[in-house]
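Q: How do we represent a protein-ligand complex in a form that can be generated token by token?
A: Start from the inputs.
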Amino acid sequence: MRRHAPVMLTETLEAMPDRCDFVLDGTLWHAWHTAAMASRWIQVVWVDRDTHMIDKAKIFLESDGLLDHVQIVQWSYADLSRISQESARQMFDYMFLDIWVNMDHFKEADRGFSIKLDGELDMRFDTSTGMSVRERLTKTHFEELDTLFAKYTDFGQKYREWIVRSLLDTRKHKQFVTTYDLRERAQSAWLGDKKLAVIFQAFRIHVNNELGELELFLERFMEYLRPGGRCAIMTYHSWEDKIVKYSFKELVANGRWKLYNKKVIKPHRQEVDKNKAARSAKFRIIEKI
Ligand SMILES: C[S@@+](CC[C@H](N)C(=O)[O-])C[C@H]1O[C@@H](n2cnc3c(N)ncnc32)[C@H](O)[C@@H]1O
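Then emit the structure tokens for the protein with S-adenosylmethionine bound:
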């Protein structure tokens, strides 16, 4: 199994506060960023919502010799009270999120994330809870689907309505069970792969409540960060970056917080040339005074 290249690793390490004993990494995957921090001196609590990703991370952490003295928790990073209880840690020095899906999600056909592989239409990070895309599509009605596409796509109203009607008409005679059921419907309506990818992304964000989890984290993280500690968030989509930007701005305006970087941090050209996954990354860091 190959480990992917981490995005803005140097910047992530540079943003650590001088005194840094306890780190929370809310988005584990291959544990690249914070495995570089974990040592006898720095303890990291690793969180990922996806058990498949945790199983993979364990293989890497074991080969790095880190598995025996780390804590791994399978929850959403927004579940800070449970994470704090489980890890017996009330305050962190550095809280780090690197938010998005990851390439492994798209490689595993049976997770349903990829438009290119045939598999069950699921797309949940945590398959033990909530509704899969397949279940949603079985139960949803016009307004719900239209609102979903209005929130998570840039389709115009007429186009949106046409897609929603086309999905609901199909459902009268054929259930959407697999990714290819959705793909075939889209292809027969002359939708290309780009549009289909946007539809898949909208369903994925919806079933995982991705923006809602980020908002919850931003409402809660303050009480788990010690004074002088920093919260660092990397995003890959303008929706998420905006949520982080305005939430940090509000904290600074209310006092007791300062921005570590006045301007958003983006990867250097050389990094993007080597790693395409970095091209849309944005990194913001705030410090508790
Ligand atoms: C871009 S990857 C993180 C990469 C990681 N920094 C590394 O070095 O390998 C994002 C990870 O966040 C996880 N994730 C997404 N939403 C989450 C949530 N609400 N809570 C916890 N983990 C989440 C995904 O399962 C995925 O493994």
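Residues 238-253 form the longest helix (16 residues). The CA atoms of residues 167 and 185 lie 8 Å apart.
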